Amino acid sequence: MFNWIQYLADWLIYSVFGIDAATHLGTALNFFVYDTLKILLLLFVIVFFMGIVNAYFPIEKLKDYLNRKKLYGLEYLFASIFGAITPFCSCSSVPLFIGFVQGGIPLGVTFAFLITSPLVNEVAIAMFIGMFGMKATLIYAISGILLGTIGGWGLGKFILDPLLSDWAKKILENKMQQSEYEDEKLTFTQRLPDITRSAWEIVRGVLLYVIIGIAIGAAMHGYVPENFFGQYLGGGEWWTVPLAVILAVPMYANAAGIVPVIQVFVAKGVPLGTAIAFMMGTVGLSIPEATLLKKVMSLKLIAIYFGVVTFFIILSGFIFNWIL
Predict the structure, then answer these.
(1) Is the pLDDT of residue 225 over 70?
(2) Could you tell me the sign of the dihedral formed by the alpha carbons of 169, 170, 174, 179, in that order?
(3) Which residues form the domain of 123?
(4) Is residue 122 part of a domain?
(5) CA distance readout (Å), 4 to 37, 126, 206
(6) Cβ distance 83 to 112 under 8 Å?
């Protein structure tokens, strides 16, 4: 499918610039050009498609639906799926999380969204398809959604509302009845310019992350010794998955920035499950996210949330390594 991009990268680096394919620089630059073009193309197509979905099923409608319907636990799954189709990193998901709290949606349901949103989105899925194939992508996406669903359901079983911040408690006490969502009477043709513009804005918003992530991946691909990562995380020992998650927490990035790095991890000998656990820890557990969550959560609730997510990410890493 992407052979034409590889031919273009080969022509540009090896013919136009005349860089030897056997050198570290040639290998790194070829990787950078190929992955940048491929990922940006996939990214725009998938974000554009999800823009069509979101145009007909906006956040306000979801909030209103979850507020008024009893779904017998399916609300956690729906919130998790909605988190998966929103192209946000952990910090970008927090404002939506705050909006859910303001809308009076149960806390466990909001956690289901918050857990899944940075872990699984069309950005990561687009990149996974191109880098790891359909099987790994499906396992990654389904497990991420299940992680959010089970994590949100589990957190929802505890009485966590008293652990919200004073600001959030005040919002809940004084919340007003949400008005009915009124669909705009627009045809698809009328919506198309806004959908296209929104897709481009999302791509433009993550463009720097994509370029930086691929650049790091390219440098690692071209210059890092073959067994460097395998030496520390590729031995298959049980402790490599928890170690990968612990090392990932300070290294905040969004999915667009970290997936190219994960591709190189795997190429250098790190098991895919361990690499994905590292990615999930990077995008789902971060100091900036914790800082933003202070607006709605106490430190104790943040610690509980991070602890649950860490546990499920480590568990997912073990399962990935077992399946893949």
Answers:
(1) no
(2) negative
(3) 21-167+191-323
(4) yes
(5) 11, 18, 24
(6) yes
